[in-house]
Amino acid sequence: MTEVARTHPLLEDARLPEVLTAVTAGEHAPRGSGPMLDVEDPATESTVARFEETTADGVAGAVENAQAAWRGWARLDPVERGRLLNRVARALRENADRLARLESLDSGKPLSQARTDIAGSARYFEYYAGLADKIHGETIPQPRGTFTYTVREPYGVVAHITPWNAPLTQMMRGVAPCLAAGNTVVVKPSELTPLTSVLAARLMVEAGLPPGVCNVVLGAGDTTGAALTRHPLVRHITFTGSVAAGRRVGAVAAERIIDVNLELGGKSPTIVCADADLGAAAKAGALAVIRNSGQSCFATTRLLVDRRVHGDFVERLAGHVAGLSVGHGLDDPDLGPLISAQQRSRVLDHIDRAVRDGAEAVVGGGAAEGAERGYFVSPTLLSGVTNDMAVAREEIFGPVQSVIAFDSLEEAVEIANDTEYGLSAGVFTAHVGTAHRIAAELQAGQVQVNRYSGAGVEVPFGGYKSSGLGREKGTEAITHYTQLKSVIVATS
Asked: Which residues belong to any copy of the Aldehyde dehydrogenase domain (predicted)?
């Protein structure tokens, strides 16, 4: 195990212990006999923190504590629940700087991106605080002498398994609507990026959230995650990650006959028509490799470009990509490192294979120059890609953009839909009719027109096909974090 300083300055500022443990009822669990795991700064390859993996007994304790807290939380006046969620939002904003710096250190993302994520995390709580007392049922017309209505009720304890690319915002995206609906939660962040989740769980209790309403356990998916999803008191699972891992989580949910939300990635296409604003489309294409260094399931990583403007577009996009800076996240470059050595190796292998398959590396194509340490990959633009290449079919999760030429809109739509994924898609065109027609034909849970960036917390998000099940964000999330009860009353 790599040696680490007694306490990293950012952990000391956040009042985090030398060795992190699970957070149950707002307190760090006592040290036990679980395995010790390192938390790495991916920009320097140095260990910045350690944590003890939560054992199956520790997971059971966190779930049972959340179940006990649920009894009071579910009975709390929804107006009061909303007030407490607003207090959590304020606590996140008041601690935004230390949370952002921890997130940047932990995940490698540029500090400005981390700050945006923390603001988004607070916004989730503000939004769902306003919805807490507006979770309505409906009355249903019935024959005379009968009155029928529906109510939405919480599940109880909900397990949230979150990814490493956006640790806090992915946590709060699911936790906020869960709490607004009257559930309690146990979160298992990625073992690669646990720092902000641990701090946030403590801040929530300090803000007034009742202890046990949001607990955090630590460890890998096949140990801590498995113990959490299989616990009999967990009545709903929310998972964000790979398709392969999502299938395993979905199988557990099916075996236990409980509900599940799965967000499992994408290979999102954007169609650039001949009449498009090529400058705006090129900027959107560059953003895909900037955000989390391309480690984003939402990113548009297949740019389908009309052959008549292909050369002009590639030149514009190359200008954007070639000018991107790479460095330590805390220095706030355009791109930080990838999350691990394994991920860097995987991305570089994909680039090499794409070139062997006939693609041209117009920009980049290898490890970032001048980086003696850290998991850096040079921002890369591949032209001459065809949709049968692995780089066009598999989720790369790195700063790699691919351009595919098409000759007709019918061909473009066919290429766009020729994928197992269906998370998001885009279209750039000056013709509103074309935009609506293509949006209707694209097989994706979200379609962006003449833009490609994240939408607000109010907009439902989720995928078609292998990109997942269920929806996060917006009022739609409430429907997935509640169960419907029908009440039929004889009135005669």
From this structure: 36-487
- The model's pTM is 0.95
Cα separation of the two ends of the chain: 74
Do 132 and 84 meet the contact criterion of CB atoms below 8 Å apart? no
Q: H-type helices in 132-240, by residue range?
A: 167-180, 195-206, 226-229
Measured CA to CA, the distance from residue 185 to residue 183 in angstroms comes to 7
- Residue tagged 């700064």 (tokens): 41
What's the token pair of residue 48? Answer: 């910045």
Amino acid code (one letter) for 90: R
The rounded distance, in Å, linking the Cα atoms of 341 and 112 is: 24
Q: What is the rounded distance in angstroms from the CA atom of residue 78 to the CA atom of residue 319?
A: 52
Report how far residue 164's alpha carbon sits from residue 145's, in angstroms, rounded to the nearest whole number. 55
The two three-digit tokens of residue 219, written as one number:
């460890």
Mean pLDDT by 10 residues, the chain (492 residues): 58 90 96 92 96 97 98 97 98 98 97 98 98 97 96 98 96 98 98 97 97 98 98 98 96 98 96 98 96 95 98 98 96 97 96 97 91 93 98 96 98 98 98 98 98 95 97 97 98 90
CATH architecture for segment(s) 9-264+470-485: 3-Layer(aba) Sandwich (3.40)
DSSP letters, 197-215, are HHHHHHHHHHTTPPTTSEE
Cβ 186 vs Cβ 62: under 8 Å:
yes
Catalytic residues, which ones? 263
Asked if 435 and 412 touch (Cβ cutoff 8 Å), the reply is: no
Return residue ranges of the chain for CATH 3.40.605.10.
9-264+470-485
Nearest Cα to Cα of residue 184 among 292, 25, 51: 25
Comma-separated ranges of CATH 3.40.309.10 domains in the chain: 268-454
Q: Which two tokens stand for residue 197?
A: 């989740």
* Arch. (CATH architecture) of 268-454: 3-Layer(aba) Sandwich (3.40)
User: What phi-psi label fits residue 484: left (phi over 0), alpha (psi between -120 and 50 degrees) or beta?
Assistant: beta
